[in-house]
Design brief:
Elements (H helix, E strand, L loop, with lengths): L1 E7 L8 E7 L5 E5 L10 E6 L5 E5 L11 H4 L13 E9 L2 E8 H13 L5 E5 L10 E6 L4 E4 L5 E3 L10 H9 L9 E6 L8 H8 L2 E7 L14 E3 L9 H4 L1 H43 L9 H15 L8 H11 L8 E7 L2 E7 L3 H13 L2 E7 L8 E8 L1
Parallel strand pairs: 1-4, 4-8, 9-12, 12-13
Antiparallel strand pairs: 1-2, 2-3, 5-7, 6-7, 8-14, 9-10, 10-11, 15-16, 16-18, 17-18
């Protein structure tokens, strides 16, 4: 069975790719160029997305939602991603314990490649993450390493791209991942290190000491010749089949039944929406009434909850007490959530109107997400987190406010 693998970046506006054509026991044929240069008539086609361009994360989903994909599932991981949920394509990969594993990729880039491949006649293909092609066995993590950076696969459906490291020091991402599972049964017994370029092997003894986990060299690895396997794709483009003549007529009664069911469902939704709107209106009137009872001199009540919080803050300040939105209490919470941030990373701290803006030295996206998650655990709300365009450049700006 012939297999064509297309390795592409979803971030490139001018689509170019590397490819490898495998045909049974014959040596693979590799090349590079535009989609128009790709081989034709392969029996199976896989689009491989680089590990750094796929976010694999966990969430808890209803069973019925697991088979849905696209921007709908993006709202389940809205707090884990930077940017609008509609800009991402999210697919369900599988289950890890009680959690669901989701993969997030750039929707615009995926659509651009779908159009490019469709223009050259390639419409039936799978989309895979490079991370999940890496060999993995239970009880052991796998790491692909090119001598400077790479990616780690820590589960059947889980993995993440790492930041930079060198021959003597492993990447910080790997250290944080091991620290997160310290004392858990999911902590690996060892880490299998696969090199992806010549002379990429690090000092295994030094890495083992730094990580506190045995590191072993597992040989070289290349996406060209990785075992295809069925795997779990990020999305699947299916062939379009013609509808047989007369099918529409046979389905007409079912269509009427479906239409009636949808009409009943729509009516129930309208009734439920009206009931909820009335309940919301009644709750707002109660809140406004209580606010006017406590503060009869108020001229206008626009947002009773917000105005009540502001009056409470004023009362605390008048009594010489601090409010949760003041600088020192917020700074204390922020400090508790940033204990793991490397010393000297904070460049600027500014406060205005109940908001704290932190400007940090640029770091990788995984560390930004981890910092944001820990800040939320302290009770702060993260309004925005702007990551740099590439590692090692610019700054990371995080805006916080009291919950």
């Amino acid at each position: 069975m012939s297999l064509l693998r297309i390795y592409c970046s979803l971030r490139d506006t001018q689509p170019r790719c590397r490819w490898a054509l495998m045909n049974g026991s014959l040596p693979p044929v590799a090349g590079e160029g535009r989609p128009a240069d790709l081989p034709r008539r392969a029996e199976r086609v896989q689009l491989i997305v680089p590990a750094a361009e796929v976010l694999i994360t966990r969430a808890s989903l209803p069973r019925a939602a697991r088979r849905r994909a696209g921007s709908v599932l993006a709202f389940a991981v809205e707090e884990e991603i930077i940017g609008e949920p509609e800009a991402n394509h999210v697919s369900w990969l599988g289950s890890a314990g009680d959690a669901d594993v989701l993969a997030v990729v750039d929707r615009k880039g995926l659509t651009r490649w779908r159009d490019e491949l469709g223009a050259v006649g390639i419409r039936n293909y799978e989309v895979h993450c490079e991370t999940l092609l890496l060999p993995w066995v239970s009880g052991e993590w796998s790491l692909a390493w090119d001598g400077r950076e790479g990616f780690v696969r820590n589960g059947e459906f889980e993995g993440v791209a790492t930041d930079c490291g060198d021959r003597e020091s492993p990447p910080l991402t790997l250290r944080l991942m091991l620290e997160a599972v310290k004392g858990h049964e999911t902590r690996p017994n060892s880490i299998a290190l696969f090199t992806t370029s010549p002379d990429a092997a690090p000092d295994v003894a030094a890495w083992t000491r730094e990580l506190g986990t045995a590191v072993r060299l597992a040989g070289s690895w290349d996406w060209h010749t990785a075992q295809p396997g069925p795997g779990r794709g990020l999305t699947q483009e299916h062939r379009r089949w013609r509808i047989l003549t007369g099918v529409a007529n046979r389905l007409r009664p079912a269509a009427w039944i479906l239409g009636a069911a949808l009409a009943i469902h729509a009516t129930a939704l309208v009734v439920n929406w009206t009931s909820l709107a009335n309940e919301q209106r009644a709750l707002r009137q109660q809140m406004e009434l209580r606010f006017r009872t406590v503060f009869p001199d108020a001229v206008a009540v626009v947002d009773p909850a917000l105005q009540m919080r502001r009056k409470l803050a004023e009362a605390r300040h008048a009594a010489g007490l601090s409010d949760s939105g003041d600088f020192l209490p917020m700074l204390e919470q922020a400090a508790a959530g940033m204990k793991e941030v490397p010393p000297g990373s904070v460049r600027v701290i500014s406060y205005e109107g109940g908001r704290i803006t932190l400007e940090l030295l640029a770091t990788d996206e995984a560390t930004v997400r981890l910092t944001v998650a820990r800040l939320r655990q302290t009770g702060l709300s993260v309004d925005s987190a702007t990551a740099p365009s590439r590692a090692g450049s610019g700054t990371v700006v995080i805006t916080l406010r009291s919950s």
